[in-house]
Write a structure and sequence with these properties.
five-stranded mixed β-sheet, six-stranded mixed β-sheet, 193 residues
Length: 193
């Protein structure tokens, strides 16, 4: 087994997505936002999004795609992957996030932003015929996500809301989960559309 040297570490901020190769590692921190990872195991190319809301509401003809929205983020990733020869059918997907960050507020309002984000991710992947290899959706608190594009592995750690406070750090021990593999691309591109 050969080792993969990580030469590119990308911190994905809300509203961004990245496309990378085998030497890339992409990471982010999610609350109610959702990340989709796409991986082509043959070409070892991958992409990851970090979107904030499910839909933009913009229906104007000619409106630009905006990666802050789930509907657009997946389209943008697929366009960049297609430019590298990766078709949607070549990819496997993983979905993360969609947590409840303010339980009392969301209980009064019904279906929260996180649930809407998770649902749009699942719907969009189904519509594009992309197999969902695994999910880590919903629950309480934030998630730390690390996508190793070379191996396709994604590590996720979910921390309860009170673990974010310095006085409670480590009190509940959110577990680190290794999820199925994904593939990577030659050059890494990070974009905010």
């Amino acid at each position: 087994m050969s080792s993969i040297q990580i030469t590119s570490a990308i911190a994905l901020m809300p509203g961004q997505y990245a496309v990378g190769t085998a030497d890339s590692r992409i990471h982010t921190l999610l609350g109610s936002c959702v990340s989709i990872t796409l991986w082509d195991s043959v070409r070892r190319i991958g992409a990851m999004s970090h979107f904030l809301l499910s839909r933009s509401g913009a229906t104007k003809p000619g409106a630009q795609l905006d990666s802050r929205y789930g509907e657009d983020a997946l389209t943008l990733m697929l366009l960049d992957l297609a430019a590298l020869g990766v078709a949607p059918a070549d990819c496997e997907a993983k979905i993360f996030g969609g947590a409840t960050m303010f339980p009392a507020l969301e209980a009064r309002r019904g279906d929260g932003v996180g649930r809407q984000n998770g649902a749009i991710a699942q719907q969009q992947l189904r519509e594009h015929g992309i197999r969902i290899a695994s999910e880590s959706l919903y629950g309480l608190g934030h998630r730390r996500i690390v996508f190793n594009v070379g191996s396709g592995a994604v590590w996720a750690r979910q921390d309860a809301p009170d673990e974010a406070r310095p006085d409670a750090a480590g009190a509940h021990g959110g577990g680190l989960i290794a999820l199925p593999r994904a593939r990577a691309l030659p050059a890494l591109q990070t974009r905010m559309a």
